[in-house]
Amino acid sequence: MIHRTPQIASAGLLKDACNKMREYVFANGKRLQGLANRRNDPVWGERAWCLRED
């Protein structure tokens, strides 16, 4: 997988970059549930933090 999230963010497409974070839940070819939880938690997750408007 090629990590293009920084390039997407640099292009001014921050919402798209935040949404792309959902794909980065793998380590050594295995899906890590804890990482998926951290990315997608609706209140405390990294994606929610990225999408906030404050």
Q: What do these coordinates show?
A:
This protein is mainly alpha-helical and 54 residues long. It contains four helices and two strands. It has helices spanning 5-10, 14-20, 33-40, 46-51; strands spanning 26-27, 30-31. Strands 1-2 form a two-stranded antiparallel sheet. Strand 1 (26-27) and strand 2 (30-31) form a beta hairpin. It is flat.
* Order of adjacent strands in the largest pleated sheet: 1-2
Q: What characteristic shape results from the CA principal axes?
A: flat
- Report the C-alpha radius of gyration, rounded: 12 Å
Order of helices and strands: HHEEHH
Beta-strand content estimate:
5-15%
Please describe the biggest sheet, giving its number of strands, its sense, and whether it closes into a barrel: 2 strands, antiparallel
Q: What structural class do you assign from the helix and strand content?
A: mainly alpha
Mean pLDDT over the residues: 81
> Level of helix content?
40-55%
* Number of helical segments with 4 or more residues: 4
End-to-end gap: 31 Å
Q: pLDDT under 50 segments (min length 5)?
A: none
Q: How many β strands by DSSP?
A: 2
Structure at a glance:
This protein has helices at residues 5-10, 14-20, 33-40, 46-51, and strands spanning 26-27, 30-31. With 54 residues, the chain is mainly alpha-helical.
